[in-house]
Structure formats: C-alpha cells, structure tokens
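I'll show one example:
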Amino acid sequence: MKKFLLNCDACDTRKMKEDVFKGYESVTINADIIFVNERSKKILDQYAVCMNADLVLNVGEEEVAIQMQNGMMEIRAGEKPEKKTILFVNGKLCIEPGTEEILKGYQGIYVNGRVCLPESVRPFLAEMKVNGVTECYPDDCIRLKQTAVIDKYFAYRVREGARYYAAKQVVLLDEKSELALLREKQVHFVTKKLVVSEALVREALPLFDMDVEVTVVPEGCKYVPGDAVLEEALLKKYGTRMYIEGDLSLAKGSEHLLEQVECLRVKGAVRMSEKQKQVFLQQNIDAEYGKIVLRKENIISQKLSVTVGETLLAAYPEGICVSDCVKVELAPEITPEQIRELLEFENCTKIVCSKEQKAVVEIVSENVARIGCDEEKKEAEEFDGTLINVDEYVL
C-alpha cells in the first residue's frame, strides 16, 4: 500500500472528493494552515489523516472565498471583496488608511511574513493572525521605502506640507538635496534613524522629530546599500569615501586598493584574510566599522548551488570561504580534518553533509540556516507513494 504526503503553506480541503485517498495506507498533510468544513472533516476522519498544521480553520457551511497570496499584497480603500473572504498571505501585506470598512469584508486574515498598516487600523490586528513582523505608521504619512535615500530630485517631487515615513531610516548624503526647498515646502520626515552627511546635518535636523537617532557621516561619503566587496568596480562607482550599510569584504588580491580609500564607514563587519588584515591596519584610512572578521582569502559567493569535492579543494590549497550561497553540498570523501583546516561557510541557506561531517561544519559556519543531510532528497528517494511539495494545494 502506498503513502500520501503533502507539504505546503496552505491546503484547502473543502471540495475534496470522498474517494480522494482511496488505496493509500497513510495520509499526512504538513501545512501552515488547513481550511476545512464539516463535510471535509468527516472525510479526513474517515481516512485517519495526520494533519500537522499551525492552524486548522473550520470555514463553516456558508460560501466563503479563500484568497491565497504569495509575495506582496495590498488592501486599498474602495476595493472591498465581493463576498466574505479569508485572506492568507505568505509574504508582505500592506494596508492603506481608510480601509476599516474594507477589512470588515474579510472573515479572517492570516499573514506569514510582514504586515504594514496605519495606526487607525491597529484595532483590527486583534482579528488577524500574524506570524512575523507588524509595523504601524502614522495615518497622515506617505510611506517611503524602509530605507529612504533622498536624492537631489526628491525636493521637486514632494507634496507641500506632507509628512513622509520610512520604517528603518532616512539617508541624506547628497549635498544637492535642496534641503532649503524641503523646508520651504514644510516637509517632515518620520523615521527611527537619520544617516546624514556632516555638511548637511544642521539643515537636515529641523526636518525630523527630536527623538530621531542621528548618524553623522564625514563629508563627501557616498552611500553604499547592503554588503559590498572591495574591488575596482566598487571604487569606480562610489569613489574613495564610502558609507557602507552592511559588511565590507576584501576580495582576493584587493589589498592594494586600500591605498586609494580615504574614508570608510562600515555599519557591519570588515571581512578579510589574516594577510589582508596586516595591510589594512597599516593604511592611514579614516575608518570606523563594527569588527574585523577573519576568513579564507579564496571566496565562492552568491551561487544557487555549490559542490565541494576533492577537485575544488586541490585548486585552492590555502582554503575556501563559501559565502551567500543557497545550497552547498559536501562530497562524502571530504574528511572532518579537511573541513576544519580548509573550509569556512557564512550566510548560506543550507549545507548538505554527512553525519560525520556535520559537527565540524557547524564549527566553521556562521549564519547558516540548515546543516545536515538532504532530508527532502532522502525522503523523495525512499518514499513509496505520492509526495507533493507546493506553496498551496486544493484537494
């Protein structure tokens, strides 16, 4: 007899047929949320279905629409659902001001991710189930990106007397930002943090609340979003004076570029080899950073899949750092001693390795989500029956 295994975010069982699981020895449904009604519950009980779910929701016998959305979803004023609806969002839900009546059209809202909503709608949070982050903003504000970088054209696009909201921070480093025009238009910013150049700080502060956290960046620094790698292309694009929002990594053989760097502000860490560290500390750079993280000089980064075997290790006898990769697979012949001496892993989603390799991989890894054997692959190879892995499924 075969088995039936379903792995999904959301499963709708309401219209399932009575013989849907006929011929299966066992049935298992793994989901974040399972929608049922009285009819489907009887069928599921008949087959003794094993349901592993965060929430099993009885929708009832009345006709209720189920809307499942992956990614970005917005609820806007004037867009009321035609009938009672249960909304399931796997991603980000943004709710506009003035949508109180619209929200009453939803029998339930379930979010696996992030919710962004105005203060006036906050009472409706009691009716929502949010597995993630909830962000409330003032109703009278116009939302910008979480990190809003104000350029020289922003002042010409703003509404007069408007308040602008950035959930994380506002970055104001462009000396052509026309702050005088922003003051003239009575524009105001609401945010937690202001990153501002030394030359603009006095003009900028009146545009923000008194309690805003202020980071003053030396004059002339260019803003670099996220992580960065020190290479010719970085200096060509941003110049020799930089404010880096994430980490800075030194590429192999890039230490000579340090001679060109005049000013460096790194919000995160500076990642480099021991040899590069000696050069870095000898340079007369106006530098501030979180910490120095030592790692292998050879770097493999930003790959969907990487296989580490004897051939790869032979090509880099001094060792390798595997960074920002989705899936890394270690060949069985790689010994724990080789892993300890030659390998480092950082910011990877999954490392597939044997039980013997796992303990050492954990020691040489930083910020890796999963380490161990490929359970999904093993499960698929050994499974006798129907195996389904999807985001959403209607039985």
